[in-house]
Amino acid sequence: MVVFYRRMPEFDYVRPRSLDEALDLVGDAEAGRYRLFAGGTDILEQLKTRKVEAPEAVVDLKNIPALGGIEREENGTLRIGATATVAEVAASPLVAGGGTALVQGAREIASIQIQNRATIAGNICNAVSSADSAPPLLALDARIVCTGTDGERSIDIADFFEGPGRSTLRPGEIVKDIRIPAHAGNWQSVYLKTAPRGKMDLAWVGVAVAAAIDNGVIEDIRIALGAVAPTPIRARRAEETLRGQAAVPDLVNSAAETAAGEANPRADSFRASEDYRREVVGVLVRRAINQLAA
Amino acid sequence: MTDITCKFTLNGRTEQVSIAPNTTLLHMLRESFMLTGVREGCGHGECGSCSIIVDGKLMNSCLILAVEAEGKEIQTVEGLAAPDGKLHPVQQAFVDESGMQCGACTSGMVLSVKTLLDANPDPTREEMKEALAGNFCRCTGWELIFKSVEEAAIAMRQGAAR
């Protein structure tokens, strides 16, 4: 049984004003001494329930200007700052269009109250398989840019997740931003989700598809699955069968089956059975491709 | 653990407090300012009874640190009525339509409805459901709550037209 405390353990609070100042604090500190803090909607809950050890201090990143904002860079890359909130991303005209899947994913995250506070970067850093922003970012081929005392690195989001709650982020590293490469004008994307309740619920299955489809021919496609494996995953075998092909029903149906086979859902979940989740992957992948090809 | 001084605007007044960093904004509002309209339901962002408005945005005060109030403009349900005591149209609509049963969710609900109607003066039922998804009415009195939202929307549109 989880004992739920309403008061939090003791910790200090620091508010660095620049990335350098933040790195000076956390860069070489021993693991667990500091906890990075942006939206706080997960960490404060974890501190209350004592799921995590109390750090010496939480480091609030929200006053670092370099970590904020959403912008289109000159080469067309979309930059989503680490402290950009879920609501900011959902409302951004820069994300809409080709990044529709991310807008849809953002709007699926919890409630308005949480969306106004939580960040997309935080949703990713938690490395939860059901995170609604993960399949869209996988389908959009995003990269996670982080910085530490050893310098900056850019991680393909497909390599970012290591397991439930685990990412390749090293202690002392700070995520700077999420970058979505420029996509040609014929790219479209969609995120479909099923869950027990219409709102405020974790996905049974989340599927994001991004594709460039011209005259019914799939030039290129990326399919991402959430909540059906220890981490969010790409369905690469299904993608392969579709690339360069006409989006005819037989092919789409068989690709959806292939994607279902790539899913590896938990067998012991009380939320949905393994077979059910796999079945729903097929349904949502088919629906998503048909929607984009229509 | 070192207390931190922060200065902010609360229901239109400038306030300054020195507060422990592990205090939630919810507890500070209730215990340092006696604003008990801010309710602690679940304490982890599911129920919305602790909803407040920070710089115009609806948030759960149970998941905000008190020290983060620095420089912010905070509004609770206590700051909604006019100085002469006249209720905000959303409050009046909840009274007129009996948009509550036990009342535990009401103060958070009223603030959610206010932010919804400020942004969208004529919401559909679907839009109301989406906007209120983060506020739980465990009495399941949704029908009268939606009726209250509709009446509040009419009152606010008439108020704006005048």
Summarize the structure.
The complex is a heterodimer of chains A (294) and B (162). Chain A contains eleven helices and 14 strands.
What is the overall pLDDT average of chain A? 95
Order of helices and strands of chain B: EEHEEEHHHH
Mean pLDDT of chain B: 96
Helix residue percentage of chain A: 25-40%
Strand line-up across the major sheet of chain B: 2-1-5-3-4
Tell me about this structure.
The complex is a heterodimer of chains A (294) and B (162). Chain A has 294 residues and is an alpha+beta fold. Chain A has helices at 19-26, 43-48, 86-91, 100-107, 112-115, 120-125, 134-139, 157-160, 236-242, 249-262, 274-293; strands at residues 12-14, 34-37, 57-60, 70-72, 78-81, 143-148, 151-156, 161-163, 166-167, 174-180, 187-194, 205-214, 217-226, 233-234. A five-stranded antiparallel sheet of chain A has the order 4-5-10-6-7. In chain A, strands 11-12-13-14 form a four-stranded antiparallel sheet. In chain A, strands 1-3-2 form a three-stranded parallel sheet, with helices on one face. In chain A, helix 9 (236-242) packs antiparallel against helix 10 and helix 10 (249-262) runs antiparallel to helix 11 (274-293). The model of chain A has no long low-confidence stretch (mean pLDDT 95). In chain B, helix 2 packs across helix 5 (142-161). A five-stranded mixed sheet of chain B has the order 2-1-5-3-4, covered by helices on one side. In chain B, a hairpin with a 2-residue loop joins strand 1 (4-10) and strand 2. Chain B starts with a strand and ends with a helix. The longest helix of chain B has 20 residues, at 142-161. With 162 residues, chain B is an alpha+beta fold.
Summarize this structure as a short list of keywords or feature phrases.
heterodimer, A: 294 residues, alpha+beta, 30% helix, B: 162 residues, 35% helix, globular
